[in-house]
Amino acid sequence: MHTKNTSIKAKIKALGKYLPMKVLSNEQLADEFPTWSVEKIYEKTGIKKRHISEEKETCSSMAIKAAEDLFKKTNLDRKDIDYILLCTQSPDYLLPTTACIVQNKLNIPKTAGALDFNLGCSGYVYGLSLAKGLIESHQAKNILLITSEMYSKYINNKDKSVRTLFGDAATATLVSAVESEHDLIHSFIFGTDGNGAENLIVPHGGSKEPISDSSNQEFEDNHGNVRSPKNLYMNGAEILTFTLLNVPKSINAVLEKAAISKESINKVIFHQANKFMLDKLKKKIGFSDEQFLVSYEEYGNTVSSTIPLGIINGIDNKEIDSTKNILICGFGVGYSWGGCIIESIG
């Protein structure tokens, strides 16, 4: 615990979520891919179902519904929100900024700041860091931190390698200024290795490779997965290698920075990539089953939304005590990773 004189600190006050109604089950996937049984899909991923956005749903519409869920849980007037941070890799448009659209639809004051930031699996940690910086430098008092991801829009239906893993979801977190003697969100560590950028990528659609006739040309890889250059591609083996190399070091760095032991951590919530990866990380780092919270089974990999969904699950299932240390760590696309400790929620 970082003890200091009483001063303004950032605190997570409440969280909300939105999950699309449409569900993709292992049974549906097994029907489409006869070589993969329901049991095989679950054994490989640990995932039972994924929520998939409807064709007309957008990043902003999901973000708004998550925020509305949050507002139901708190007595804060939305007019008191003075900043919106929206993490997404599936914005409504290349421009304008989706956070600006969300501000208008939610009737957040025009005096509020609003920005998007493009990060994936590490995005929630980075968002908390940005919120903490804005609050503790007295630039904002109540921040709406939103994650809204719809990777399904980028996935080819004939590519089982990613279709079995990813789901869509949005979350909203209220981060507010409070007076406290110690940090309530602290010991941030970050990491970046752009050398791995091409191992999790949508090749076409940006300024480097705009959408063209070739963007729609499908091809089949060595494993029978079909995709085109405008679809999501993931090199699972390389992502696993990167994760097992960097995440354990990052966790040790967070603990060292916080000057607390592994045993002092009440709960651990990692980015919910898949069962195989998380089981390996838990064993390698040495967290107990009781410490290690998982939520991938019901949602799949929802990118930047996995950690806040895990926090919400932990609170709903009474697994998280509001005043105990929670260690979170996000890692993946970029490559990008980050971790921190949350001391208190609510």
From TrEMBL:
GO terms for molecular function: 3-oxoacyl-[acyl-carrier-protein] synthase activity. Residues 255-343 form the Beta-ketoacyl-[acyl-carrier-protein] synthase III C-terminal domain. GO terms for biological process: fatty acid biosynthetic process; secondary metabolite biosynthetic process. It holds the Pfam family ACP_syn_III_C. Signal peptide: none annotated. Residues 115-194 form the Beta-ketoacyl-[acyl-carrier-protein] synthase III N-terminal domain. The keyword Transferase applies. Keywords: Acyltransferase, Transferase. InterPro entries: ACP_syn_III_C, ACP_syn_III_N, Thiolase-like. The keyword Transferase applies. This is Ketoacyl-ACP synthase III.
